[in-house]
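Re: adenosine-5'-diphosphate structure - here you go.
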Amino acid sequence: MAQLRFRVVEKAFQTKPKEVEVPSERPSEYFAKYVFNREKMFKYLPTSVYNKLVDAMDNGAALDREVADKVAEGMKRWAMELGATHYTHWFQPLTEGTAEKHDAFVEHDGKGGMMEEFSGKLLVQQEPDASSFPNGGIRNTFEARGYSAWDPSSPVFVVDDTLCIPTVFIAYTGESLDYKAPLLKALRAVNKAAVDVCHYFDPDVKKVMAYLGWEQEYFLVDEGLYAARPDLLLTGRTLMGHEASKNQQLEDHYFGAIPTRVAAFMKDLEIQALELGIPVKTRHNEVAPNQFELAPIFEECNLAVDHNMLIMSLMRKVARTHGFRVLLHEKPFKGVNGSGKHNNWSLGTDTGVLLMAPGKTAEENLRFITFVVNTLMAVYRHNGLLKASIMSATNAHRLGANEAPPAIISSFLGTQLSRVLDHMEDSSIDELVALGGKHGMKLDIPQIPELLIDNTDRNRTSPFAFTGNRFELRAVGSEANCASAMIALNTAVAEQLTEFKQEVDKLMEGGEPKISAIVHVIRQYIKKCKPIRFDGNGYSEEWKEEAARRGLDCETSCPVIFDQYLSADSVRMFESTGVMTRKELEARNEVKWETYTKKIQIEARVLGDLVMNHIVPVAIEYQSKLIDNVYKMKNIFPEEKAVRLSAQNLAIIDEIADRTAYIKEHVDAMVEARKVANKIENEREKAVAYHDTIAPMLEQIRYHIDKLELIVDDRMWTLPKYRELLFIR
Ligand code: ADP
Ligand code: MG
């Protein structure tokens, strides 16, 4: 087996970069080649059908069957010209990935032959036999049927020979069983609430979009080395492995030159992403060795989420053609940085205004401050929920470690914006809003320097940082579906904006002029949401204490954090905005707890296997060699000299005995602890048991394995080491 380790290491060193075929020097020539975008809709659909479809996409207008049939016909023609033979409803169940079931475009023609067919009925709705998707009990108590329904707001695309149709996935009884359905509802809610608030400033606004620009971090590992690590293969992370002597301490990887084999992978990935209409723009090395980042230009939130799901599967596929495996796990390697997925979020109007960007006039700045402060209020009120929305068994390794935001949500605004808010808080309403001449009202909202847009001061430790024209939610995990965080954030902002409008309207009904009513409520909010603002070091111990004093959610146990979804405040928020019902929230939490338990359970099993099959036998074999040597020393040297010369070996023999004994005992104890936990019926309690008793054992056992790695003969060690996994390109 050790032979295998050396063979794969050697092969990894010898692997050459793959030649990448570039379709054209100009990305604009192949961008969205495989997407049925407006240009293709116009070409393949009758004009009246095109107009109705665009209305459905932009304004959510309903499509009748006849139109759907025509759309399906055009789509099929376009897809078949690209070589598609199948179609699939592409959806996002409550797992980490996407789901698809392919059907061919064939039907009996009634004359004993076949014809290519794809109708509006097949486009609009399907009934996948999806009883084995996570559903938290919803599908067991009612009919076991689920529906997938077309989401016209995200364009269909072709991957290989299949036409992929983005869909929502819901139960027979209407509950959502996926990420997309509640996301669309959250986006609808924030649109409505934000449009209403925009009308204070501009009556022409008809629509407000939420934007998302994600930054995807990932690791690459040589495929051969990956295959020789059962823990990577089965759990996505290394459950053992001593730190390499060199890792990221020289800070020589971040923004460094991209290794050629990796560069070829990136180029290939980017071409294929662009062909799928994903506007990828930025790539660079990340902090840890073999860690990289990819970011597109931001897009409308629902589309951006779909594109992120699509790129994660594309990355997996393309990596393999370059002899790599991509690791999307939040913490594949201990001791070096983990991977996140910053979610850059903002709101913008159909009139072209970015609502999180400062303007030039006092009134534009009041609008800007209105949206910023309401966002802060939303994040303050629901900071625990926002944390729950990004929490998972895998992201738990990253949060709170000294590299990613702590398990406390706070917001960094930077000095300039903080000063503006402080000024508003400290001045009286009369000072801020003076009666002027013709225009009735003068505003003393400090002019915010344009420099702010450049966003010079940054705070990498903040989980929710203002960055010039957007907020950056930095706590999202690399493997996560962004929808989870985007559902929580957009719904919280929708609820908050709705309440803001009610308060302002009430003051106006009492006779207060509009601007002073807005300023009045904003000033109260600035005071109220102060605890969420934190510009200091989010990694420090003092912050944890300070945050607790401020009443922010400081819970660190992943399964307990999920309780936030069922708090009275959260349920009220989701129900009042029409995003999710209590029943849906309960069902989704069951899924979260169950998933948490299963992940830890799998890790515990894999570690147990590795210990018994790889670690302990090798350590004992080496120990026997040393024992043999000690005996032989006694045969050739006088007693006293033999003992002296064998002292070192005896110490190692002793250490191996101690550590293997500890490891074996704890693996047994872990099995027992699992038996106890598995008997617990309640999913939450079971997850808590896994978190409290089993997860810590994984770390305790690992500690001794990593120590053994340091003393056992390298030639005998079967598993590729960190220095091999992380430094071979
Ligand atoms: P950084 O590493 O400095 O955070 P990147 O360029 O890597 O910046 O990523 C920034 C992301 O934020 C990109 O996806 C970009 O398109 C996106 N972005 C920029 N402006 C906005 C905005 N107003 N709303 C949402 N996303 C935005
Ligand atoms: Mg960023």
